[in-house]
Amino acid sequence: MRSHEVQILGAGAIGSIFGYFLLMAGCDVVFVARGKRYRELKNGLKISGMVDYFEKVEVSDVPVKSWLTIVAVKSYDTEKAVRGIGNLTDVVMSIQNGIGNEDIIAKEAEKVIGATTSYAANLRDGVVFYAGEGETWIGNWKGCGEEVFEVAEILAKGGMNVRITENIAEMKWIKAAINAVINPLTAIAGVKNGELLRREFWNVAKFVCMECELLLRNMGIFINLEQKVKTIAKKTANNKSSMLQDLERGKKTEIDAITGKILEEAKKARIETKANEIMYWMVKALETSASKKSKRLKD
Question: pTM for this structure?
Answer without folding.
Answer: 0.94
